Amino acid sequence: MSRIGRLPVAIPQGIQVKKEGRTVIVSGEKGILEEKIHPDMNVIIEEKRICVERPSNDGVHRSLHGLTRTLIQNMITGLTTGFEKRLEVVGVGYRAEKKGKALVLQLVYSHPIYFIPPEGILVEVPSPNSIVVKGISKHLVGQVAAKIRSFQPPEPYKGKGILYEGEYVRRKAGKTTV
To answer: Which of 47, 56, 63, 73 has its CA 20 to 30 A from that of 123?
Structure first.
């Protein structure tokens, strides 16, 4: 049996969970999240917990068992505490600032980059060298952080660019003269 899939998901106070067809809907004071569940997985919603069961011991069903449980747990975690990703802006002249809802990035280009985050995502700039992406959907927070990082990924020679906090950039040696 899947070690992760067999664990029940606790439903904290203030969170409502319901199942409509193949969709599991989790709502709380921070918002509402929905996730479509594979038709082979059986989600049982009890009073204070959610259990996920699988029909057989096939490899596909075993992998879907843990995935389904983790997706439901991530929805509940997002509505109780939320998710965040931190990015660092490294380089001379590289900086980030917030103008209204838009994130303005000054990178290697001749023009600033304006990025407007999607609905449900909050982007904060505590300093010109750091960006914090917050939200209730783990998938959407990671996707927005990856999009911001894609504007200028870190390069291996000087390490300049946008990188995740704590990310290690393996450095290459530059050209040598004879």
So the answer is: 73
pLDDT digit string, tens, across residues 13-71: 999 999 999 999 999 999 999 999 999 999 999 989 999 999 998 889 988 999 999 99
- Written as one string, the DSSP assignment of the chain is --TTTTSPEE--TT-EEEEETTEEEEE-SS-EEEEE--TT-EEEE-SSEEEEE-SS--HHHHHHHHHHHHHHHHHHHHHHT-EEEEEEEESTT-EEEEETTEEEEE-SSSSPEEEPPPTTEEEEEEETTEEEEEES-HHHHHHHHHHHHHTSPPPTTT--EEEETT------------
